[in-house]
Amino acid sequence: MPLTDLLLSQLADPFRIGLIIALVVTMLRTRGATGTVLPLAAGAVFVAVIIPATALSGAGGAVPLWQAVAVGLVANAVLIAIAMAAYALWQRVRG
Fold first, then answer.
1. pLDDT given for residue 60 in this prediction
2. Is-contact 30 39, C-beta < 8 A?
3. Which of 75-79's residues contact partners 24+ apart within 8 Å by CB, and which partners?
4. pLDDT of 14-32, one tens digit each?
5. Which of 18, 72, 73, 93 has a 20 to 30 Å separation from 11 between CA atoms?
6. What is d(CA 46, CA 7) in angstroms, rounded to the nearest whole number?
7. Global pTM?
8. Cα dihedral across residues 18, 23, 24, 26: positive or negative
9. How far apart are CA 12 and CA 54, in angstroms?
10. Are residues 24 and 83 in contact, defined by beta-carbon separation less than 8 angstroms?
């Protein structure tokens, strides 16, 4: 499976999207005590490792674990950026 197909499949994974949204919401609620960067980084690494380690991310084992985790880190970074941009837009519109 080419890496672009793997990235697109991980970006469209509803479980990954849900986990990233929950991660961002949790970070926003606990930002005063834990900060921003460390919880997001730790959560992104956790999600990038746990999904391919348990389900092989829909690849059926065709992709080595390290590749699935590396591409998962990129997918998580993209999803976190989208979620944070949506939050910033919501804050701006809300006033």
1. 57
2. yes
3. 75/7, 75/10, 75/11, 75/13, 75/16, 75/48, 76/16, 76/20, 76/44, 76/47, 76/48, 77/44, 78/11, 79/11, 79/16, 79/17, 79/20
4. 999 999 999 999 999 999 9
5. 93
6. 17
7. 0.89
8. positive
9. 18
10. yes
Alpha helices, DSSP H only, in the chain?
Answer: 3-11, 14-29, 31-34, 37-55, 65-94
The DSSP code for 56 is G
Residues (pLDDT < 50) of the chain are 57, 59
CA gap 41, 93 in Å, rounded: 27
DSSP 15-39: HHHHHHHHHHHHHHHSHHHH-SHHH
Distance (Å, whole) CA 52 – CA 91: 34
Q: Are 49 and 69 in contact (CB under 8 A)?
A: yes
